């Protein structure tokens, strides 16, 4: 118990020091436009807080003095200690067995609880208590406000991935797309968009592709949260307020909310009976009912004719008022979606030039719809064609400091630079003569890509198994890494030596940013909420990649050592009682020798009547 108290005190003091240091750093980085009075008050508060961190040393010295006074002073505790020593010497070995066994049991229970709490919440329960309850007491109202602000920020950032807030407003998603966590470090980023979920631009078809995994091993490749986000997205982009009351749209609203695929398909068929040119119903049937890509393409071509007719009609009526503008936006979203899915069908069927034309036309015809990330589809098709100059042209347009980044942008830029030197690169030769200018440029591009998403290299190097990508991804997260590697691994293998160069250089990124959660190099610090969001998007059978890897909390290691040590002592005491009792007495004797030596030295220095004078007070 005494060791546990010491460990708890050390942990609390460690968090206290870290919190005060964080306050000092924040005070040093204050904006210049603050008033002089507030700056002076903040500096005084920082100095006082900094001084208070060293009061523990004074308290420790005072505690030693009081203990010494209690032992040698008028309380006669030394006699009580001698009596207790005589009592312990008369105890049987069974008492020591019971004592060590009970201590091992209690510490084992604490270890199990700490381990469960760490696996569930990612932090130590005892350390969390010390942060939430002891730190506010030591730091006052300032720490309370800081903790509340941090909790509010984490709540806001987490709400962006909740099933209820994923795609409630299509306009808000489009307007905020430039403030994602994928921007460069010169672009301001708010906490609310730190873990914004994006539609996977290369999402697979449910009936023709995802369903195969279910039939093969019975595992669900999509989570309910992921499918719920898709349903909310379809409700937002494929319908509008003017569609209320129409029977086919009411049926589709029910279909998007249903969880059973058979029910959704039946409702889509019923909607087609009401309106044979109803495009959203054809899209649902192509996505979920069609079992082959050829059948998907056939249904999407039928949907394309209906979408183009509706788009032309609404375009002609744009000048008739605001309502027609809303209808035209809905028809535009449907047309873009159908064309892009047709381009993906052409890509899967090997018609690469046809797919390239579709994606090029979409980018030219709808340049403002960057929220759909159609340029990532174009990059992937151009890489399949090995048309690297055109890929470089697309990157020159979209790899801009003012635009949100993605793994496709960063790693494709690294691939193109690695392509120029990878075939002749040798780590042994490079270590002797140094890196050339082209090799240095390639290595820097790889470091930039790894800093943006550190999960990708393990999938590209096949150190982790790849699963089917989800329908939504989190930028800089494990879900984005899976989606990128699933489609782009063949392109890296096609470039001779590219994976070897990646293998030799990617880990060097972590030496540049040893504390990625606190400081970034080319991008903002790595978000702290990626693990939670990725667990909602990825299936349960997948081992989610976590960066940076969380270290075991101090208390788990401490309780594990305490439990193991006391259990070993209990076993040895039970097996060899005489030897264990002798060792225990010998240890107590050795432990008392330095204490006795210190007390004698202090008595020789201090006046003999000091404690009588103190007793009078």
Automatic annotation (TrEMBL):
Chief localisation class: membrane
Recorded superkingdom: Eukaryota
Family: Belongs to the ST7 family.
Keyword Transmembrane tagged: yes
Record-linked CDD domains: ST7
UniProt keyword terms in alphabetical order: Membrane, Transmembrane, Transmembrane helix
InterPro entries documented for this protein: ST7, TPR-like_helical_dom_sf
Name of the featured protein: Protein ST7 homolog
An annotated GO cellular component: membrane
Subcellular localization(s) per the UniProt record: Membrane
Membrane-spanning parts: 47-71, 95-118
Membrane topology: Multi-pass membrane protein
């Amino acid at each position: 118990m005494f060791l546990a108290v010491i460990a708890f005190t050390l942990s609390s003091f460690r968090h206290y020091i870290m919190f005060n240091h964080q306050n000092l750093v924040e005070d040093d980085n204050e904006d210049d436009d603050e008033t002089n009075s507030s700056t002076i008050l903040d500096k005084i508060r920082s100095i006082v807080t900094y001084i208070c961190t060293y009061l523990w040393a004074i308290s420790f010295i005072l505690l030693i003095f009081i203990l010494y006074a209690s032992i040698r002073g008028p309380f006669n505790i030394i006699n009580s200690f001698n009596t207790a020593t005589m009592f312990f010497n008369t105890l049987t070995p069974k008492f020591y067995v019971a004592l060590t066994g009970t201590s091992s049991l209690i510490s084992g229970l604490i270890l199990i609880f700490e381990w469960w709490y760490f696996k569930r919440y990612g932090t130590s329960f005892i350390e969390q208590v010390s942060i939430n309850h002891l730190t506010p007491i030591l730091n006052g109202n300032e720490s309370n406000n800081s903790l509340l602000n941090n909790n509010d920020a984490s709540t806001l950032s987490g709400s962006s991935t909740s099933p209820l807030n994923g795609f409630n407003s299509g306009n808000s998603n489009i307007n905020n797309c430039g403030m994602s966590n994928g921007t460069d470090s010169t672009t301001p980023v708010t906490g609310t968009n730190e873990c914004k979920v994006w539609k996977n631009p290369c999402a697979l078809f449910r009936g023709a592709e995802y369903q195969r995994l279910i039939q093969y091993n019975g595992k669900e490749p999509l989570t309910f949260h992921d499918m719920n986000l898709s349903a909310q997205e379809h409700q937002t982009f494929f319908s509008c307020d003017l569609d209320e009351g129409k029977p086919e749209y009411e049926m589709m609203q029910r279909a998007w909310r249903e969880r059973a695929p058979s029910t959704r398909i039946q409702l889509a068929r019923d909607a087609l009976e009401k309106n044979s040119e109803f495009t959203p119903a054809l899209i649902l049937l192509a996505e979920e009912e069609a079992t082959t890509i050829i059948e998907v393409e056939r249904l999407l071509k039928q949907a394309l004719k209906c979408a183009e007719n509706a788009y032309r009609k609404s375009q002609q009526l744009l000048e008739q008022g605001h309502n027609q503008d809303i209808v035209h936006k809905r028809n535009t979203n449907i047309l873009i979606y159908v064309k892009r899915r047709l381009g993906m069908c052409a890509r899967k069927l090997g018609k690469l030039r046809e797919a390239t034309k579709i994606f090029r036309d979409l980018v030219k015809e709808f340049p403002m719809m960057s929220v759909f990330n159609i340029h990532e589809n174009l990059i992937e098709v151009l890489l399949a064609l090995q048309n690297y100059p055109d890929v470089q042209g697309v990157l020159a347009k979209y790899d801009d400091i003012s635009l949100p980044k993605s793994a496709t942008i960063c790693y494709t830029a690294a691939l193109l630079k690695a392509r120029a030197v990878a075939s002749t690169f040798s780590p042994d030769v490079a270590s002797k003569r140094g890196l050339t200018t082209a090799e240095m440029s390639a290595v820097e591009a790889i470091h930039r890509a790894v800093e943006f998403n550190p999960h990708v290299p393990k999938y590209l190097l096949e150190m982790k198994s790849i699963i089917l990508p989800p329908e939504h991804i989190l930028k800089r997260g494990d879900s984005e890494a899976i989606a990128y590697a699933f489609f782009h691994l063949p392109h890296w293998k096609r470039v001779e030596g590219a994976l070897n160069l990646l293998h030799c250089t990617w880990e060097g990124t972590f030496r540049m940013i040893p504390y990625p959660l606190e400081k970034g190099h080319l991008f903002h610090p790595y978000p702290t909420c990626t693990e939670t969001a990725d667990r909602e998007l990825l299936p349960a059978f997948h081992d989610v990649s976590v960066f940076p890897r969380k270290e075991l909390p101090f208390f788990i290691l401490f309780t594990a050592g305490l439990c193991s040590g006391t259990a070993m002592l209990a076993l040895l005491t039970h097996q060899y009682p005489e030897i264990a009792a002798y060792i225990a007495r010998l240890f107590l004797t050795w432990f008392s020798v330095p204490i006795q030596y210190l007390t004698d030295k202090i008595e020789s220095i201090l006046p003999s009547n000091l404690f009588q004078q103190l007793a009078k007070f």
